[in-house]
């Protein structure tokens, strides 16, 4: 090979591998850019979740867990994209991740169900800490909303822990979400009582009771003619925080009014007949 031929071969070799090196450098730079952008997006979404959940007064444990889960999920997707940019076949990696996720999901089916239910509770917020609710026939004040369970403190100061999956599927009665609440009382009187007199006594009892809302007219009506009594409904409105106090005072005023006016309050009786042989 003469010098000219050697020179041409050398130039063609350098030109060929320059293209390869340039291609690798380009892919590597794009991979770095993808990773930086993905990590920035992961941090942004994680911080936004922390801010939104904290503003909604979600339990700090739930805030940290959800934000960390979102961050690492985006990082994993970013790493798969980076490997694909570097020329690595990512189909097998995605398959392995999917298989691992399926295995973990089957192993933790109950826990994942509770976690998903916890996310639903956080998003839709049928109740929040400090509210009085009934869940699965269990009444109490919401103590905390954890990742997998919800804690309730009963009126007798017992701590009840209910899995979130049961909470989501149960009928939830929230007593304190709305500012006003109606108090429904049933007053039984004997058939020998004068109906108009009973109306008057019940109206006076309502008027004597404090913290009853005057913006909504109280309702007093004869509702049922029972086997041994006439049943009157007394329906009044009050603020949630005054409900227990109003109920106690109203019952006292009704009882005192009925007693003062000699209106009979019937109670169950039994007639026993003895036959002598």
UniProtKB/TrEMBL annotation:
<dbReference type="InterPro" id="IPR011014">
    <property type="entry name" value="MscS_channel_TM-2"/>
</dbReference>
<keyword id="KW-1003">Cell membrane</keyword>
<feature type="domain" description="Mechanosensitive ion channel transmembrane helices 2/3">
    <location>
        <begin position="70"/>
        <end position="109"/>
    </location>
</feature>
<comment type="subunit">
    <text>Homoheptamer.</text>
</comment>
<dbReference type="GO" id="GO:0008381">
    <property type="term" value="F:mechanosensitive monoatomic ion channel activity"/>
</dbReference>
<feature type="domain" description="Mechanosensitive ion channel MscS C-terminal">
    <location>
        <begin position="184"/>
        <end position="265"/>
    </location>
</feature>
<dbReference type="GO" id="GO:0005886">
    <property type="term" value="C:plasma membrane"/>
</dbReference>
<keyword id="KW-0813">Transport</keyword>
<dbReference type="InterPro" id="IPR011066">
    <property type="entry name" value="MscS_channel_C_sf"/>
</dbReference>
<dbReference type="InterPro" id="IPR049142">
    <property type="entry name" value="MS_channel_1st"/>
</dbReference>
<dbReference type="Pfam" id="PF21082">
    <property type="entry name" value="MS_channel_3rd"/>
</dbReference>
<keyword id="KW-1133">Transmembrane helix</keyword>
<dbReference type="Pfam" id="PF21088">
    <property type="entry name" value="MS_channel_1st"/>
</dbReference>
<feature type="domain" description="Mechanosensitive ion channel MscS">
    <location>
        <begin position="111"/>
        <end position="177"/>
    </location>
</feature>
<feature type="transmembrane region" description="Helical">
    <location>
        <begin position="93"/>
        <end position="124"/>
    </location>
</feature>
<protein>
    <recommendedName>
        <fullName>Small-conductance mechanosensitive channel</fullName>
    </recommendedName>
</protein>
<comment type="function">
    <text>Mechanosensitive channel that participates in the regulation of osmotic pressure changes within the cell, opening in response to stretch forces in the membrane lipid bilayer, without the need for other proteins. Contributes to normal resistance to hypoosmotic shock. Forms an ion channel of 1.0 nanosiemens conductance with a slight preference for anions.</text>
</comment>
<dbReference type="Pfam" id="PF00924">
    <property type="entry name" value="MS_channel_2nd"/>
</dbReference>
<keyword id="KW-0472">Membrane</keyword>
<keyword id="KW-0997">Cell inner membrane</keyword>
<dbReference type="InterPro" id="IPR045275">
    <property type="entry name" value="MscS_archaea/bacteria_type"/>
</dbReference>
<feature type="transmembrane region" description="Helical">
    <location>
        <begin position="20"/>
        <end position="42"/>
    </location>
</feature>
<dbReference type="InterPro" id="IPR049278">
    <property type="entry name" value="MS_channel_C"/>
</dbReference>
<keyword id="KW-0812">Transmembrane</keyword>
<keyword id="KW-0407">Ion channel</keyword>
<feature type="transmembrane region" description="Helical">
    <location>
        <begin position="62"/>
        <end position="87"/>
    </location>
</feature>
<dbReference type="InterPro" id="IPR008910">
    <property type="entry name" value="MSC_TM_helix"/>
</dbReference>
<dbReference type="InterPro" id="IPR010920">
    <property type="entry name" value="LSM_dom_sf"/>
</dbReference>
<dbReference type="InterPro" id="IPR023408">
    <property type="entry name" value="MscS_beta-dom_sf"/>
</dbReference>
<comment type="similarity">
    <text>Belongs to the MscS (TC 1.A.23) family.</text>
</comment>
<dbReference type="Pfam" id="PF05552">
    <property type="entry name" value="MS_channel_1st_1"/>
</dbReference>
<keyword id="KW-0406">Ion transport</keyword>
<dbReference type="InterPro" id="IPR006685">
    <property type="entry name" value="MscS_channel_2nd"/>
</dbReference>
């Amino acid at each position: 090979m003469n010098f000219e031929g050697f020179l041409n071969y050398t130039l063609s070799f350098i030109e060929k591998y320059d293209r390869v090196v340039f291609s690798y450098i380009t892919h590597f730079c794009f991979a770095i850019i993808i990773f930086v952008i993905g990590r920035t997006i992961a941090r942004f979404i994680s911080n936004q979740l922390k801010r939104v959940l904290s503003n909604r007064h979600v339990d700090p444990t739930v805030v940290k867990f959800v934000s960390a889960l979102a961050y690492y999920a985006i990082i994993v997707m970013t790493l798969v994209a980076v490997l694909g940019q570097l020329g690595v076949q990512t189909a097998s990696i995605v398959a392995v991740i999917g298989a691992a996720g399926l295995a973990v999901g089957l192993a933790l089916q109950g826990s994942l169900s509770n976690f998903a239910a916890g996310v639903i509770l956080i998003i839709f917020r049928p109740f929040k800490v400090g509210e009085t609710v009934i869940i699965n026939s269990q009444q109490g004040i919401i103590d905390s909303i954890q990742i997998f369970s919800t804690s309730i403190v009963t009126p007798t100061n017992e701590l009840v822990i209910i899995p979130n999956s049961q909470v989501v599927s149960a009928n939830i009665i929230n007593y304190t979400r709305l500012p006003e609440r109606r108090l429904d009382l049933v007053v039984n009187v004997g058939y020998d009582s004068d109906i108009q007199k009973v109306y008057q006594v019940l109206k006076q009892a309502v008027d004597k009771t404090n913290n009853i809302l005057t913006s909504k007219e109280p309702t007093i009506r004869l509702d049922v003619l029972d086997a041994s009594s006439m049943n009157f409904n007394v329906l009044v409105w009050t603020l949630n925080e005054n409900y227990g106090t109003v109920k106690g005072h109203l019952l006292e005023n009704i009882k005192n009014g009925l007693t003062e006016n000699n209106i009979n309050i019937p109670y169950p009786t039994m007639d026993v007949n003895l036959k002598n042989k």
